[in-house]
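User: what does the whole thing look like in 3D?
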Amino acid sequence: MTPFLALVRLELAVLFGSPLAYLTLTGFAGVSALLFLEPLRVYNQLLFAYASTNLGGFDTGAIPDSVNLWDTVFFPVMDSLGLTLLAAVPLVGMRSFAEDRARGRDELLLCSGLGPGAIVAAKFAVCAATVLAMLAVAFVYPAATLERGDLGSAHLAAVFLALAGLGLGLTALALACSALTEHQLVAALCAWALGFALWDFGWAAPLTSETVARGLQALALRPRFAALSEGLVSAADLAYFAGLVAVGAAVARASFDLRRARA
Amino acid sequence: MSRVLAWLGAVALVFGLGTGAVSDPGASFARVNVAFGALALGAAALLGARRLGAVAGPLARRGLWPAAARVGLALLAAVAVERAAAFTGLRFDWTAEGRYEPDAALVSRIDGLCEPVEVLLFGKAGDRRLRRTRLWLETLARHEKLSLHELDLAEAPPEAHRYAVGGSNRLVLRRAGAPRRFERVERPGEGGLYEALTRLCARPEGRLLWLDGEGQGDPELRAPQGYSGLAAALETEGYAWQRAPSAGLDEIPESVAGVLVVAPERPLHPRGAAALERYLQRGGRLVALLEPGTDSGLDALLALWGIESPPAAVLDAPGPAARGADANALVVQHWETHPISAGLGPGRAGYLPGARSFALRKPDPDDRLDAVAWSGPQARRADEPARAEGRYLPVAVAGRYPRGETETRIFAAGDADFASNHHLRSVYNLDLVLNAVHWTLSREAALTLRPKLRETVQFPLPTRDALGGYLGLGLLVPELLLAVGGAVWLRRREG
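Assistant: Here's the predicted 3D structure for the full assembly of 758 residues, as structure tokens:
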């Protein structure tokens, strides 16, 4: 077994050897199901109210365009899931480097023959797999319901791509934060604050010029996530999330040099 | 000190950004927090760098440069790749209804715009429809002739008053070179945008005479049985129309581009009928929408041009749409190859609530008479015995009659209701009637299939069913996870 695979295996064993990972997965699945059920209930009630008022049955002409499964149920759920990911992903990534630092295992790792880049890659792979598993678990319920409604598997794939892109981008941020501290809590808070700050710059539009506002919005997570979840898969949005992963990994990699300089 | 400053800065920044995101971003609380947070973080970074300089040796510090360069390089590469990807414009529409694939007619209309057009999107924060409208407009705004500007209604921009914008998610289209020429779109959609762009750059296509006085369809009546929708659609396409009582019609002027006769209930006044006949003899253009079961008043005139039409309604095999008051309705899916019906075919149907059929006979060998639309294969006329063999019957026809240097053109449909307000926007009815007018008036370049409403999902997904799924598959996954997690924890405790 190569040192890289050995490290991946070790990380998986540490992560899934404690009940924390399972509790996080369970909690996320439960929260996402609840997030989905409430808008679905409201949507059905709205349809019923319009159908009753107009006494026309489920005649599409009687119901406003804005009341539809995507706008009333799916997109609000996606927004809520995105915000939930902002909080949940830092919990997965917080221990990656911070725990090693706190226990002095980081120097041991460097003696294993693995370079800093490979260590970062291994830890990212494990965290990313965990986050993807979390998303898959959370996605089962809405996907099963919507697939029963025959709403198009391509669109569902785009929705999962949106969640995966956001999840992986946030994982890279969480790793970068974890690499810069030895306190897990600080790492989680830092990753959460960073993710929250990057979430949406739409609020800045009235304060700045149109060009600056557009530039800021190009940096934001939410418009990219929203476009993908709308079913519009663009190379630029995928490149944005890939870039976020690359920058997060580069910062995590740089933390090794920073530590060496301090030593 | 630097850590304390960093912590204070992060807290202030999060509170500032959070306040800005959920309420007024210009509030002093948000501004002060953001400013303090940014300053504190900057100071913390400076102090951290100084501390590093004091602690680390010159050799170690030198080792930091490659690390900083790698981060910078990653940042630059990320931005470059993203910009390059954006430049390629590579994007895929994975929506079930192909929402972000612009309709060919809309693209063609944008290509043919007389000058660049600015699209103003008015919205209010919190309006969820805006996101989709914005994405859709951004797709269209990739075309150089369209530019998109978003305006927040909450700030009461002067444009909102100038263009009388009544609510969120509304569009105003204005010509870049002539901002006074504008069009409002109340419900953003391809059809609305297409018509607004058409009106914005419409060129006068000629004047139509709408014959009146024998109970014809009313172009000013907004009720479902009226034809105000057709009249408005003709205006959108650049046609002016004018009502003309046939009793007062001595001669149809040369300046008239065509004559429209819509659902007459009685024979035309002899004076009007004679004027129409003379007009056609000298190369006139006629669009006649007839109704079954009545004397159309045009029978004798049309027969002169080889178009005979018994008043009996066509009885087609009952389709899914044939129900209630429209018991004789035809869902037209069989189209002849003709410019009027170009692009129509199976799945692109016309809906005629009841129609009469035609029999064609060329008056002159050089004439050309074509069926445009057919009934289903099992149709018969109501005046034929029930056991008569079913067959295709023409329900819309078109004729060209070259006479020397002039050419007469006639389009006749066995139904007029399909163009009434009630049915005009059903399936491809609008395309049928407008393309018929364009073809009859020799405006072939204007023939097109207009954008259609993309389907929105508006059927119920009962919560009980959803709960059923939740209690089955939805709960099984967390249950398994919890069971495995507990087992792992217990085994570790025992170990």
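In plain terms: DSSP finds twelve helices and 19 strands in chain B. The mean pLDDT of chain B is 86.
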